[in-house]
Amino acid sequence: MWGYGYGNGMMGYSLFGGFFSLLWFVLVVVIVIAIVRGITGGRHGHHWMDRDKTALDILKERYAKGEIDKNEFEEKKKDLT
Questions:
Q1: What residue numbers bound the domain in which 8 lies?
Q2: Do 12 and 31 share a structural domain?
Q3: Contact at 8 Å (CB) between 76 and 57?
């Protein structure tokens, strides 16, 4: 008698149980990703090797990207060296 038929109280679980299990799984994954990013400092897209860049390296990158022109690059380079 127990566990047979449709009136045993498990009907609600079969409809929404899979959805809530998936929701919990996604929540756990999001929390783990947030913790890992918080520990590694990856929240703002900075790579751990960016900490070793010098001011001259950053200046060269800005010139290569076209953010500054040659005159500004030379002036700032002279100030740094």
A1: 1-46
A2: yes
A3: no
- Judgement on whether residues 54 and 35 belong to the same structural domain of the protein: no
In degrees, rounded to 5, the angle at the alpha carbon of residue 81 between the alpha carbons of residues 52 and 69 is: 85
Say how many domains are in the chain.
Answer: 2
CA torsion angle 5 9 15 21 (round to 10) = -130
Q: Answer for the pair 80, 60: CB distance below 8 angstroms, yes or no.
A: no
Shared domain check, 74 and 56: yes
Same domain, 34 and 52: no
Look at the block and give the residue holding tokens 């380079």. Answer: 77
- Indicate yes or no: pTM above 0.85: no
**Beta carbons within 10 angstroms of residue 59's beta carbon:** 19
In order along its 81 residues, the chain shows pLDDT tens digits of 555 555 555 555 566 677 888 889 999 999 998 888 888 766 555 555 556 788 899 999 999 999 999 999 999 999 988
